[in-house]
Specification:
37% helix; alpha+beta
């Protein structure tokens, strides 16, 4: 009985081996390579704040560092539009602050252009004292409100 069992097992193994072999003269298809792992995309920073001295629109060295970061992110992140919005604190008249916020936004735009950003990508807005970061009474100097926001889109 053991001999009969061994013969049947050998026959089954031979049949299974023959079923997986390729006919003579043909090649087995190449194994598919494993998928290549791609590095995940690193998200770019899209919002930047540039701060200014009281009643000034000059770009300080610290402000310039922020502008450089924004320009580098814009170049790396396939950005098609950059909104540059100037703001002012509530010291001074509304008309003065409106003009000051425009000068600040224009100064930032010029700095971005010097860093290789196309002027056609930049849209400049001036909000004056109408959108403070920190709410204050009229006439109050607040450093956080003397800013330009750069938004990459």
């Amino acid at each position: 009985m053991n001999l009969k069992f061994a013969a049947v097992a050998a026959l089954l193994l031979t049949t299974a081996a023959c079923a997986t072999q390729q006919p003579a003269g043909t090649m087995a298809p190449a194994p598919t390579p494993p998928p290549v792992a791609q590095a995940p995309a690193v998200p770019i920073q899209r919002n930047f704040l540039v701060f200014f001295e009281f009643a000034k629109s000059d770009v300080t060295p610290e402000a310039n560092r922020v502008i450089i970061q924004a320009a580098d992110s814009a170049k790396a992140g396939n950005v098609t539009r950059i909104n540059v919005t100037g703001h002012a604190d509530r010291a001074g008249s509304a008309a003065y602050n409106q003009a000051l916020s425009r000068r600040r936004a224009s100064a930032v735009m010029d700095a971005l252009v010097r860093r290789g950003i196309s002027r056609n990508q930049i849209f400049v807005f001036a909000r004056g004292e109408s959108q403070p970061l920190v709410a204050t009474r009229d006439g109050v100097r607040e450093a956080q409100n003397r800013r330009v926001e750069i938004v990459l889109q």
